[in-house]
Amino acid sequence: MQAPGVPKSIGIGARRLGLEPPAPAVVYIGRNPGYNEDDQGHPFVGKSGKLLHAVYIDGINLRERATIYLMNGVRCYTIKDEPPKARHWKACMPYSIQELEQIKEQHDRVGVVLLGGDCTSHGYRHMLGVKGMNLTKGINNNGDTHNDVTVFSTYHPSAVLRDPNYINAVHDHNGLISAWLDGVMAVPSEPNIIQPRIPHV
Question: Residue 147, Cβ neighbours under 10 Å: how many?
């Protein structure tokens, strides 16, 4: 019998969809499992998961273009679905880092999509070694490369369920991911600095 307050599933790992390696990989990382994920033992199977599949994945036909991995930064369901604390991220992130390294070994190109503010902040900090990030900064830096992976941030599906207006931004971010897969994502060039010239009198 399950003890009161103890999650049924401890440590829900990554799930793979779409094409077989070595196709390009797109790795979606969420915050932590919810009740449905904890109950079924798989990531993204609740309402948020259905939206992730319908819009984020099928919206750009990812199943036929890439290998898709679904995982969470924090592996355990928190009682009453409370936000994970910093100690939870610190304890669980090494497992996500290990899985990401295994993914990188199987694929020449890897894109990581961080879902939501918490995942963007802790994902950048613990997985990529970049401090001080939040969702806005993450979105503004979409397409940057860190540790041999291309990183994108977007709104978590649960945020879209709460405020459908976010779906427009998600479509824009999906467009960047699609362009990255096709190898046509615009990359900022280095500025060409022109030295000022003193006019002749």
Answer: 15
Say whether the peptide bond before residue 22 is cis (omega within 30 degrees of 0). yes
Return all residues near 124 (Cβ < 8 A) that are at least 6 apart.
114, 130, 131, 133, 138, 146, 151
> Residue 124 corresponds to which amino acid?
Y
The DSSP 8-state label assigned to residue 59 in this structure reads G
pLDDT value at residue 141:
94
CATH of 15-182 given 3.30.360.10, 3.40.470.10, 1.10.10.10, 3.30.565.10: 3.40.470.10
Q: What is the pTM of this model?
A: 0.84
Distances (CA, A) of 120 to 10, 65, 129, 154: 23, 25, 12, 9
For position 186, what pLDDT does the model report?
77
Domain boundaries of the chain, sorted by first residue: 15-182
Q: Which residues of the chain register pLDDT less than 50?
A: 1-10
What b/e sequence results for 96-112 when a residue is b if at least 16 CB atoms lie within 10 Å of its CB, and e otherwise?
Answer: beebbeebbeebebbbb
CB 176 within 8 A of CB 143: yes
Whole-number Å distance between alpha carbons of 72 and 162 = 20
Direct distance between the N- and C-terminal alpha carbons of the chain, in angstroms, rounded to an integer? 92
Residue 94's pLDDT is what? 87
Residue pair 71/27 in contact (Cβ under 8 Å)? The answer is yes
